[in-house]
Amino acid sequence: MIDVTKIRKDFPILKREVNGKPLVYLDNAATSQTPQQVIDVIVDYYSNYNANIHRGVHALSQEATDKYEQARIKIQKHFNAAKSYEVIFTSGTTHSINIVANGFSSLIKKGDEIIVSAMEHHSNIVPWQMLCERTGAILRVIPMNLDGELILSAYHELLSDKTKLIFCNHVSNALGTVNPIKEIIDAAHKVGAAVLIDGAQAAPHIKADVQALNADFYTVSAHKICGPTGAGVLYGKEEWLNKLPPYQGGGEMIAEVTFEKTTYADLPHKFEAGTPNICGGIAMGAGLDYMNAIGFDEIAAYEHELLEYATEELLAIDGLKIYGIAKEKTAVISFNVGEIHPYDIGSILDKLGVAVRTGHHCAQPIMDFYKIPGTVRASFSFYNTKEEVDVLVAAVKKAKSMLE
Ligand code: C6P
Prior knowledge:
Layout: H1 4-9, E1 17-18, E2 21-22, E3 24-25, H2 36-49, H3 59-78, E4 87-90, H4 93-103, E5 113-117, H5 126-135, E6 138-142, H6 152-158, E7 163-169, H7 181-190, E8 194-198, H8 210-213, E9 217-221, E10 232-236, H9 238-243, E11 254-257, E12 262-264, H10 278-294, H11 296-315, E13 320-323, E14 332-337, H12 342-351, E15 354-355, E16 357-359, H13 364-370, E17 375-379, H14 386-403
Parallel strand pairs: 3-15, 5-6, 5-7, 7-8, 8-9
Antiparallel strand pairs: 1-2, 4-10, 9-10, 11-12, 13-14, 14-17, 16-17
Bound molecules: ligand C6P.
Ligand C6P is lined by residues 29-30, 92-94, 121, 123-124, 169, 173, 198, 200-201, 221, 357, 361-362.
Pfam families: Aminotran_5
Enzyme class: transferase
Domain Aminotransferase class V: 24-392
């Protein structure tokens, strides 16, 4: 059982007010808040051992290198990667996906097919469209139904020996749908295609096991799992990471450089050119430590309770429609009230201290599918409470009465 009162004391930001009202932070799908334990790790890094890594023989550099590599191992263990060098530090999911999309330029040819799902974030659409433009490959889309679930029979029909790559999020950021990625991966492997799972929205709620899933690539952003912005990882199976060329050239990713020829460093350094976000990587490990100490099963159970409660309370509001009612969902509620523009509701909610995201959520194809300009998205975390749901519901009612 989660002790939410105790947990909330770990998050200094939750004590602040916004527009004279206590902050009710329900924009966790955009970025999670940071517990003091992670803030302390960041302060400790800059106060005590800030140095460049893998380069110096001096004590600070050694210490920073050790902590950074320990964080890599923590992340490896959390996602059950077989090898620590299958975990590549990046600046986040967008960077991770672009490493793979660019790498596949040399492995994809004209007429090959790439499949994405209809409910992807732009980060998991645009890099593949760019890859198709470069190579002449064809992009196919797994359709979804009105409940916000992928139509798997259509996916199976799309698969053929032309299919080379599949891209699908584990959890949709705009709808909260948990996709059946194991089935998607297994079917892709039967036709010899590789699969990248965008885990950005799953990582805060589900402890993914990349070996059990048999994912070829899995991407994560630190800032959604109690860590800092500008950090994240790309997990890739060793065989795939060895096949892909480096994404960026520069320091630290080389074995040997001459003007005639450069050879590349082994994994993971081949994909980690330049000075990385050292503190960010270490703090990402601390964020996972914090969440693991609470327990992912406990987090999922508690957030499910919040989801059920909030869904019931919001649906009691006349004219409120929820987009995304999949059987498997994380605690994300995307909604509109009558014809009121989501931005107008979001602005009034903000005046009442309630932080939600409004708009297309970087997933315009989903909004086009529902023929709406956007939604109001309330996304919950393990530090939210039922009392905060009540504040949200009262605020939506007030917004409705003012705008209708
Ligand atoms: N979604 C949201 O409000 P970055 O920005 O690289 O850390 O993550 C991009 C990204 C990729 N995939 C999914 C499924 C995502 O949800 C996100 C980020 C945030 O929904 C900010 S746009």
